[in-house]
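Field log, afternoon session.

UNIT: design team B
ACTIVITY: writing a sequence onto a fixed backbone
BACKBONE:
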């Protein structure tokens, strides 16, 4: 018993350390290899402890879909790194330039992997470690520890908002943790303001359900008032951040979060304090409209600066078609895009990602990547259906909130690349771990509730 308690404590601590490292050090998608390496190293204790604890469980069959999907995602870059004989890799689409380069230089054709950028594909595998560790850790963590991780996530999101406010107050010249950043904009712990907006959106459903859940229990109403405060700050923050995706997604995320909050409050008649969530958001939105409408609307002005991502998508799609069916290799986007970018598109700006994770996955992983995306959407739909049909408990509330957070990230990924930062990939995995638990019984998810029912 003592060992089991110690192991659970180690898992909780390792998960907390990984989440903290990810948010503080994992807010950039490129460069800063040392910081990203620290996040990946911080994932190893949780991954080892989580796997050891997971192998001792007797309900692995219930998680075969989720775990199988996680293994498949981790295996993809490793498969792309397997050396292939010249007779095989030279026949793959998109390898003509490589074959020509070897012929011109007189280098013999040796065994080469499927990926055109082996070093970056290996880095892509290492970048998956924090997310994989968090997902496995959530499956074996205790219910109380999972709730504490969510509370820490909300605190980190709030602190990131406050850091963004300090950046704004400094005139946009100080307190930026990254050299390559949106200087002059509100970014918090991130290098990109859009990714801060994603973190703020992820916190909205968790704040609402934890606040509303306090209405089911006697005692302090402080959690609900803190939730109202977070929603108000989130609305103001998204207006100041001026992320178009964040602004557009806030209304549907808030609407779905209020529905989850109603379920968390017991699915009865909405209580007055619950309506305070709506009131707090409405006041914040009105304040943003009064003081920041002009710069915010300028971000949506079609007559403003040209939107390079939309104009570049056809180029990326054409490059993806030329590398089907297996793709060019994870992490190869920059190399491939530079090789096909039209001369008339060259300018001082740097198109570092496709700003569409689905399109970029189509280029780098081909049909296998598309199959994994479809499999994930099937898993997401099945677990979401289970979570929303389930009864009322704190863990079920967190699962419903996770569906909203995951949905927001999936929508944002259609016009950006949030999951290519270690911070958001780890948070996303936390949400997926919570949602995967929807297959477990209420008694196991909420042991304190089970104990109360047995004492009656």
């Amino acid at each position: 018993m003592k060992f089991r308690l110690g192991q659970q404590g180690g898992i909780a601590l390792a998960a907390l350390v990984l989440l903290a490292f990810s948010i503080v050090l994992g807010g950039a998608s490129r460069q800063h290899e040392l910081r990203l390496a620290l996040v990946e190293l911080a994932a190893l204790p949780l991954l080892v402890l989580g796997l050891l604890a997971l192998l001792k469980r007797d309900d692995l069959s219930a998680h075969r879909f989720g775990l199988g999907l996680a293994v498949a995602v981790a295996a993809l870059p490793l498969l792309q790194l397997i050396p292939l004989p010249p007779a095989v890799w030279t026949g793959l689409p998109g390898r003509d330039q490589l074959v020509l380069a070897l012929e011109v230089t007189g280098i013999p054709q040796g065994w080469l992997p499927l990926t055109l950028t082996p070093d970056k594909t290996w880095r892509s595998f290492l970048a998956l470690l924090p997310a994989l560790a968090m997902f496995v850790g959530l499956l074996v963590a205790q219910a109380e520890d999972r709730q504490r991780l969510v509370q820490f996530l909300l605190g980190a999101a709030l602190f990131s908002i406050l850091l963004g406010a300090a950046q704004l107050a400094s005139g946009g010249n100080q307190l930026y943790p990254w050299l390559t950043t949106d200087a002059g904009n509100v970014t918090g712990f991130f290098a990109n303001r859009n990714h801060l907006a994603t973190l703020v959106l992820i916190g909205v459903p968790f704040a609402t359900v934890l606040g509303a859940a306090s209405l089911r229990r006697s005692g302090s109403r402080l959690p609900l008032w803190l939730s109202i405060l977070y929603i108000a700050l989130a609305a103001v923050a998204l207006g100041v951040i001026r992320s178009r995706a964040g602004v557009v997604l806030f209304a549907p995320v808030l609407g779905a979060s209020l529905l989850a909050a109603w379920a968390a409050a017991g699915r009865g008649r909405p209580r007055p304090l619950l309506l305070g969530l709506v009131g707090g958001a409405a006041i914040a939105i009105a304040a943003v409209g009064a003081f920041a409408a002009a710069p915010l609307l300028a971000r949506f002005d079609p007559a403003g600066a040209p939107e390079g991502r939309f104009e570049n998508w056809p180029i990326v799609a054409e490059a993806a078609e030329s590398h089907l069916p297996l793709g060019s290799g994870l992490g190869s986007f920059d190399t491939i895009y530079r090789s096909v970018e039209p001369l008339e598109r060259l300018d001082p700006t740097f198109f570092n990602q496709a700003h569409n994770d689905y399109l970029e996955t189509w280029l780098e992983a081909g049909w296998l990547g598309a199959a994994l995306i479809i499999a994930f959407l099937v898993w997401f739909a099945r677990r979401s259906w289970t979570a929303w049909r389930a009864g009322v408990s704190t863990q079920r509330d967190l699962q419903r909130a996770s569906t909203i957070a995951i949905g927001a990230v999936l929508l944002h990924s259609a016009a950006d690349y949030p999951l290519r930062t270690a911070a958001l990939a780890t948070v996303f995995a936390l949400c997926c771990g919570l949602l995967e638990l929807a297959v477990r019984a209420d008694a196991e998810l909420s042991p304190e509730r089970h104990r109360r029912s047995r004492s009656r």
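LOG NOTE: The first strand starts at residue 83 and ends at 84.
NEXT ACTIVITY: expression trials, pending approval
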